[in-house]
Amino acid sequence: xxxxxxxxxxxxxxxxxxxxxxxxxxxxxxxxxxxxxxxxxxxxxxxxxxxxxxxxxxxxxxxxxxxxxxxxxxxxxxxxxxxxxxxxxxxxxxxxxxxxxxxxxxxxxxxxxxxxxxxxxxxxxxxxxxxxxxxxxxxxxxxxxxxxxxxxxxxxxxxxxxxxxxxxxxxxxxxxxxxxxxxxxxxxxxxxxxxxxxxxxxxxxxxxxxxxxxx
Length: 215
Fold this sequence. Notes:
Low-confidence stretches: none
Largest sheet: 5 strands, parallel
Mean pLDDT: 94
Strand content: 5-15%
Order of helices and strands: EHHHHHHEHHEHHEHEH
Strand order of the largest sheet: 3-2-1-4-5
Shape: globular
């Protein structure tokens, strides 16, 4: 089936992964990545009532989530503050220009593009200023604005609806978290996991598009 649209995550795709920042922050206090992830971001393969998930859905503010996460960490012996992650994210070097330019070319080639990000309201002004959103994307969906977050299938369905009711099979989704990509694949979307080598993910994307064009 023809691919008509390419959907992107933000952090971990256009910028280095926040999960790597979490790994570095955890190492600084002697915590494993798994423990740090569970405390700060919760069970990320699921959509739960963890404070970070509620914050990403816009149900609580960042300070409330920060306070509750610190309490969870104290009970687990993982003394991590959300703001500890910011010093790692602040040194990430900005947007990945290869991904930005590939997105521009996708639009020039006739593909529809969308951004779907798990994010919090307090970060909105910052991350939106990092990319020329109107130039790159036809649709932008921010979890904190719509009250839905990946991997809830409803957020993918919302993006496809805003793209005019596009069939999942006609789209490709790129995300740095495997669970989010797997959720998209279960809906029928093509999926690409963006690892530490984001250029390899772009090669994989081009291969999917090439196969679809040949059919």
